Structure formats: structure tokens, C-alpha cells
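Each field is set out as follows.
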Amino acid sequence: MAIADEQAQSSAESPPRYVNRDVSWLEFNGRVLEEAEDETNPLLERVKFLSIVSSNLDEFMMVRVSGIRSQLNGAEQPVDETPDGSSPRYLFNRIHERNHELVGRQYACLQQAVLPAIAQHGIRLLEPEQLSKTQQQYVEDYFEQTVFPVLTPMAIDPSHPTPHLQNRGLYLAAMVQPMLRPRGGPKRLLAVVQIPTVLPRMVELPGKGSDFILLEQLVASRLDRLFGGSNINSWTTIRVTRDADLDIDGDEVMHDLSQAIEEGLRALKHRDPVRLEVTAGVDEKLVATVAEQMQLGPEEIYHVDGPLDLTALMSWQSLPGYDHLRDAAFTPRRPAEFPEEADVFAAIRKRDILVHHPYQSFGCVVDFLDQAAEDPNVLAIKQTLYRSGSESPIVRALMSAAEAGKNVTAVVELMARFDERANVSWARQMERAGVHVVFGFLDLKTHCKTTLVVRREGNRLRRYVHLGTGNYNATTAKIYTDLGLFTCRQKYGEDVSALFNMLTGYSLGHQWKRLVIAPHDLQAKTLEHIHRETKRASEGQPARIFGKLNSLVDGDVIEALYEASQAGVEIDLICRGSCCLVPGVPGLSDNIRVRSIIDRFLEHSRIYIFGADSNADVYLSSADWMPRNFRRRVEAMFPILEPTLKKHIMESIVPTLQADNVKAREMQPDGSYRRIKPGKGTPPVRSQVRFLEEMAANDAIDDNV
């Protein structure tokens, strides 16, 4: 389906210069759905992708669609939009139209392909009428002893006002005819029952294989007992998605930012609904009654042919005994420079070290912090934390270091979307352990991934630095692809020290020697490099730009890339998600190729290369090419100077990514994507598998040395 925004198209001869960011994102989620539909993927991996589609869409609805809905109600235009000319009304309609199509495909894939196929392997999602006698008795006992005591049936009438339906909460809605009702009261009432989140939604049943029933099905089959003496005319499962974009006004934060965020999180509970999901094929009068209560239009109601919220299926990933239904297990390899119990500081002193996650273990980053915490010669540790996770060995190491008397500073980004509550909790725990916790700037998110360790060595101090493209999160490091650099080069250390001084003390005036920092000069430096390649191409010199990033949205960068393409610069982009640039348009972007890789791991690393030979500038970064990264976040882009590491990125990592002809799709001039397939005589290359194989081969070589 072509997605280039027709509002930006002045005529058939003049293609649009931009694809809308949100429409482009929907196509990204469509590519995730394609992985669920792909029969070459193992069945449990297909289930995983179905779950991810739902999780992605939830976040999109809560943040992006809620913002567009607010614009329709008179809110100011967000500052992060692309200049594609789309009106809020057009976007609102287009998004829901495409979403309904994708959700229809998602559930067709689930019901017609995945569930029947996986049932043949012994994993079954059963309806109440499919239970065996043994399972029926188990469910009855489970309901009486565990479920029934925590349920609260709520009828809605003038004396029982409409209960607040929680964001992403699951409910049963029913039309009931109560035996007991006020004189002159309505014969039929709307009633709701919340499905408790304190209990597992997937109820495992006794049996030979792995049989499950959904908790809402278990409750729905017993609604007559919840509303004793009432007739149940009709019922359905419902789920409400609400606006969840936390917005803290810096001008109104007088004392404690963490307290303001907690208050903001509480306020989110009462934000407007943006979507209602209901089970398909139910009483339309019931649906209309619920929608009226929510004040939602028909396009915001999603009739779903199956279980609501497929993220529940993610629990099947941990089922034992089904390895044949998953991708082959792998163990992240320790970098050769960091063998077991190695002195990480001695290793870094030898040369810069590049680590490639998840193929190489994130444990080396944890070891770096653990050894710093225990080393009596380490005087100070400073680190930025954006998404650290619920169980964080990184945070534990910082607290241990502080308890050992070291000077430890953590710059915690409390406004990391959907991780606000966890970050507030970690901040308070670290403060109790003696860590100096700083929240950065009110109007700028701290998104850079930096660690500084100051160590006494003889009569001098040496700075050790880790810079990364991904979060200090040991859990996501197993499923996100990211790159990290360890170095003790003096200029890096000076820059990172200045960066922390800026974050903690508003210190300015430092002349950056290695780091390129947003919001100061990251956009300007990026444009400078693009213009330099444009000039080289105009003068007949070889010129090249490569970018691997998550999103390309910034209009200034897109225009500079168009200019570079017209000058003859060869431009290759691997953009996982939203891409607002239109590639391959004659006279505009002939020399630009855009690809997206969707595979087992989430492609998350950012790599930027400017130049066509070994003298090219090679950078890693925490930032995408988006207005928010350039203007509203503290980001870091840093060069790779070690020749062997630079060569590895340019001659191994990047070519492997570009050679992918299994999980890569190429963006077309109309904004759609086409899966790349191996040509005749060309072997299939799946880049993520190739990286895993290379790591295993390197281990075998090391073992034989």
C-alpha cells in the first residue's frame, strides 16, 4: 500500500518530498506483522511478533494518536512534526483506517494460522466448552478459591455512577436485567467487571500438553453467579486505551521533580480515552452504550476477532519443552579483550574496545562498573541512566560503590516515557545508598549513554569512559542490537567530564574535542558532514554517506540529503522505523536507498559514516535524525578513532547489514516497502544470524590458540 502523503503531492508529475512520520510508523508496525505472518519463522517467534504488534500499537495510540486527537480539540501543533502538510483530521482518519486493516490481518494470522498450527504441537488456547471434565473441575475450583473473592461486579445507574475504566485494563461489559432495581429504574443496566491484574491472565490447565484458558473467559462463563438473580442479555470483553503522554511543565515544578512526576502519573489515570477494543460479533447496542460512556467515535472502536491485548501471549515464550518452536538459543560471547575475571582497566589501557550487543555480552559493561565499585583506586563514578530496567545490576553496582565511600553521581532521566515510575524508585534507592542523584534539565531529556570512571594510577588520575548507542539495561541488551565503546583516551575523558559538569552544574563553555553534543551542535555537525560530501561529489571526488538509525524525521537533514543525492553522493540508509525521506525519486533522491531490517533482535544501534574511503569519519551515537534528538534532548555522537575498530565497522558490520536479503525490506518511492530476496546464484544473508555465526567462529579460533 502506498503511504506517501497525497496532501503534499501537488500533481502527478511532482511526487511528495516527505512521508508523514505517523503514517510511516504504521508501515513499520506492518513490517513487524509480516514477521508474524512469515511461515519460515518458528511458531513461538511468530507469537512473539504478534505480541509486539499489540505492544507497539498501544504505545502509538497513547502518545501519537492522543496528540493528534488533542489537536482536533484545539491543542497547539507539536514541535516534532515533519513538514509534509498533513492536517490533524487527515492523519486521524488515515491512521485509524490503516490500523483497522493491520489489526484485521493480525487477528487473521492468529486465528487462521498461528493458533491452529501451534495446537498441533501441544499448546492450546481453549474455550470453556472445549475443556475436559478434569479441566472443568480445575477451573471451577480455581474460580471459587482464587478468582471470585477478588472480583467486583459494578452495575451502572443513577445511584452507581460509571466506574473509571483504567488505561489498558481488561473488563467484561454486560447488559443485565436485575431482579433488584429501584422503583421506576431501567429494566436493563450496563454492568462491568474488571479482570484482575493480580492474577495470571493465561490460566494453565491440567493435561498432557500445555492447555490454557484466558481469565476473562473463565469469568465470563460465570457472570450469572456474579450478578446473582439477574439475567445476562449480552456481554463482551472491552479494553480502553487512554492518552498517556506525560507532560510536566517545567515552569510549574517548584521543588521536587520526582514528586511532580508521581503526581503527573496519577493524573494520567483520568486522561481521555483514545481507543475502545471490543470482542467482535457482540450486541451492537451494548457496544454503542459503552462507546457513548467513553465519548468515542465509530472509527475509534476496534472490533477484534479474538482475545484482546495479545501481549498476554508473550508468556508462552518461557514455556519449557518447546525449544523446537523458537529461534536457536545462543549465549552472548564475552569480548576477547574481556575474558573471565580480566582486569578491565588494564584491557582498556591497551587500546579502545568496541562491543557489539547482543552478540557480545553486556556483562562486560556490568564488570566495568563492578570492578570500579570494588577497586580502592577508583575515586569517582558518573553515569547517565535513561531506561535501567526493573532489575538492574548497573544500579546495584552504583549503590555498592557509594556505600564503599566512592563519589558516585547518577544523572537519572525521570521522564523516560513509560519508565518514569521505575526511574523514580531507583533514584530514591540510590539516594539512600549515598549516590548523588541528579535529574538533568527540566526541558531537555538526558538521552546520551555515558559512563565516566576516575581512577588513581600512581601520581596521576586517569579517566575511563564507556559510550554507547543503547541504554544501560541488562535485560534489553539481550534483545536490542547496540554498540559500545570503552576508551581511556584523554580527550574523550575531558569531554565526558565536561558533559557531566553541564548536566549536574549547568557548566558551559567547554570546547568539545571528540564528542558532538545535542542540543548544542549535533544537528549543525551532521549537516556540515552532509554538505562536505555534497561538495566532494560536486568536485568529482568519491563521496558517500551511510546512516543506520531508528527514525529519520528532521526536515533540514532530509533536505540536505536530497541536495547531496542530486550532487551525486551515494547514500545508503538503514532506518528501522519511521522514515520521512522519499528515496529513489528521479531528480530528487536518485542516489538514496533506504532499507529496514526487522528480525529476531530489535535493531537499535546508530552508526553514521561520512566519506568514501578509509579516511571517512565514523561515528556512533545515541541520537536519531529527529527534531527531538537535535533540539530537546541531551545526546552524544562520538567518533571511532582506533583504526582496527573503524575498519571493523566499515568492512564487517556495515557490509553485513547491507547484504541482508532475508529480513531486509527496501523503501519504494511511494513510501511502501518491498522485501529483498536473494537473486539467482546469490546466497541468502540474514545479517543477525551472520553476526551470531561470526561470534561463534571467533570463539572457536580463540579456543584453539
Summary: The mean pLDDT is 89. The CA atoms of residues 30 and 102 lie 7 Å apart. The chain has four domains: 28-121, 130-300, 344-508, 518-698. The radius of gyration is 27 Å.
